[in-house]
Amino acid sequence: MAKILIAEDDTSLGMSLQFTLESEKHVVELVADGLEALDRLKLYPYELVILDVDLPGLSGFEVARQFRDCRGAIPILMLTGKTTINDKASGFDAGADDYLTKPFDMRELLMRINALLRRPSVYAGNVIEGRGISLDTSTRIAHKGSDKIELTAKEFELLEFLMKRPDQYFSVDDLLDQIWTSESESSELAARQLIRRLRKKIETEGEEPVIVTSKGLGYKFKA
Fold it and tell me: Taking 90 as the threshold, does the pLDDT of residue 69 lie above it?
């Protein structure tokens, strides 16, 4: 699961991309304007951005260039109908990590995205393990020891996010930014309730907590 921003002004293609990625359990936001895409990249944490080159307001090239100038480091996948080597060179010069020419097969898009998301990954393969807990991100099944843990989609996403980043603290606001879309009306209370429910499912009374709370720092998965 990753939080992904799509900037695509073709409504049909944008919605198709969003549906495909959400089917893969990603948290996806869709915008149709380059200026809005840049604003979101500056305000919210994402793990990947998909940029159409020919965006209104600000081109995909310029969004990528300004984002990199602000030290934005997440992977950028550019989409374009332009096929010349000079166009591709312009994209890479602006800071793109990969380039996909329209029309394309959604399977190829998913392969490119998975490759980009693996680059900074802190785990190998589809299974994340720690503290006796294992998460299979392909089947969305969780176990503690040999026992299956019944998790809701949001509980799974929260545990996956924390387990991929062991011993790093995240505030409630951080978790709201990462687990929910920016348009979501979810509140601090909703996030705390989600954490409380997850703890009940993965922690055993008398054992050291799996999710640790520190005042002023937030929550972390204790490796």
Answer: no
Residues of 203-219 as b/e, b for ≥16 C-beta within 10 angstroms?
beeeeeebbeeeeeebb
Q: What is the pLDDT of residues 13-58, one digit of tens each?
A: 999 999 999 999 899 999 999 999 999 998 888 999 999 999 999 9
Secondary element (H or E) of residue 168: none
Name residue 42's amino acid.
K
Q: Contact, 67 vs 97, CB < 8 A?
A: no
Cα–Cα distances in Å, from 122 out to 127, 135, 160, 162? Answer: 12, 14, 12, 11
Reported pTM: 0.61
Contacts of 89 (CB under 8 A, 6+ apart): none
Domains and CATH numbers, the chain: 3-118 (3.40.50.2300), 127-221 (1.10.10.10)
Q: How many CB atoms lie within 10 A of CB 119?
A: 9
Beta strands in the chain (DSSP E): 3-7, 27-31, 48-52, 76-80, 98-101, 127-130, 133-136, 141-144, 147-149, 211-214, 218-221
Q: Please name which of 76, 12, 91 lies closest in space to residue 38, comparing C-alpha atoms.
A: 76
